[in-house]
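Example complex used in Figure S2.
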Amino acid sequence: MLYGGIEAGGTKIVCAVGTGPEDLQAQISFPTTTSGETLTRIIAFFQQRQLVAPLAAIGIGSFGPISPDRFAPDYGYITTTPKPGWAQTDIVGTIERALGVPAGFDTDVNAAALGEKRWGSAQGMDTFIYLTIGTGIGGGGLSNDRLMHGLLHPEMGHIRLPHDRQADPFLGICPYHGDCLEGLASGPALNARWGVPAETLPLDHPAWALEAHYLALACVNFICTLSPQRIILGGGVMSQSHLFPLIRQEVQALLNEYIQVPAILQQIDAYIVPPGLGSQVGVLGALALAEQAAGESPVVER
Amino acid sequence: MLYGGIEAGGTKIVCAVGTGPEDLQAQISFPTTTSGETLTRIIAFFQQRQLVAPLAAIGIGSFGPISPDRFAPDYGYITTTPKPGWAQTDIVGTIERALGVPAGFDTDVNAAALGEKRWGSAQGMDTFIYLTIGTGIGGGGLSNDRLMHGLLHPEMGHIRLPHDRQADPFLGICPYHGDCLEGLASGPALNARWGVPAETLPLDHPAWALEAHYLALACVNFICTLSPQRIILGGGVMSQSHLFPLIRQEVQALLNEYIQVPAILQQIDAYIVPPGLGSQVGVLGALALAEQAAGESPVVER
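Predicted assembly (604 residues):
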């Protein structure tokens, strides 16, 4: 069986065809423009691949908010996004009709989490989270071996955290919440706080300790709420890999030995980790969604 | 089939025999003393009931931390509790051996959540949380139709929240974390902050708006993390039912229409609710755990 995967990001689309990380037979990437133009390019890519070999299903890991509930009237839509031209876009229906194959659909972060379960850092785990820290902050994951849904889907980037305005007078940039996690610790928040692109800041700049502090507070809240077996941190900001030891150390300090498990007390280097699939996590996660849509997922029921 | 339920609280034990809220055939309650004395009283109660009619299983909803993982070497134990004489107590093994029936075992709050799913305010829901706000603050629930576990079990009372020390200079009373949710908003925290038993404070005292503020922040973080279909708030502090409208209003204000679902935007009175089973939620939850242990739960697989 051959699958298609679509990583639909707010700034970039990645499409691939294959069966897994060792077998990607074609891949393209282009900027996200209007919904019409973007969907046309996506469909053209897969139609061309279908001339070579049939696809069993397509997986779509999308920026949001989305409607992932198969029984909702707007299932398969990108819903209330402020992104111009994308609100109320029927991405699943458009693609299923054009390509004649079933589509799996979930948030970009749930897709990434599924990819990590299938081929990456979360193999064998039934409860874990995947956070991306980049242009925005999003989180998804598996709980009890299924992708996390509920009323809608997690919006982990918007939790509220302690914010000491004397130590950090920056007010946050979330248009809805000001100083929520995304408002304080996303890439644009870093750039706005320090007035320069964060990646130009030296390793000993206080920006990094502060960033690690907020991300550690977030990890602690997710640990207390979900009891994940692992936390995977991806996204552009986490390519600053020196953040990992800072975050791990602060998570231990904040938890203060309250949660007495070796994974946190002794093996935290294996507990808070980068994605095993690296920068391919998004599109491979979409491929894992396609497997699931075809009823062929070896790891997670639909 | 007849079941036994044990609500094992840090200050009080409740035992009952029956099949559900309309059919409780016997119930007792006594203070939690030493582990030896307490377990002896529990066992004596059920042995006497076994003379009347056989029990198919026992359910135990326990204060913690506990080891709920059936495959862990210390499964069935209350583990590192600071409660004198209770650390490393094999509560499941002791009870199963004495009574000769299988025992279901989970946190008090997961048990309560299961009770609410079976007979209370969460019927038909697959993802929701139950929070108790009393001597401590704990949270459990179902995610994807199973009780929430993972590395261990949730410890929702210990999330960190914004704490404006100018508006509220109280430092919090959690011995591990100071001003975590439990440190700021549990019953003892209320009493310590205001210097009097909270239930003696008039309804217009600023204590209540502040309490609602912290509980609303907690609800918002749980909503963003888990996307629950409902939040059930129980425990002694929530018997101050005037807190509910304050919390609901502040949850809406804090979310600021970011999550566009009618349950939050229009029907929040049905979204943040007291337990349908009232003060019986703990022991009925334990009964629902017993059904599960007997393989007879109509609502949730084990």
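The first strand of chain A starts at residue 3 and ends at 8. Chain A touches chain B through 51 residues (CB under 8 Å).
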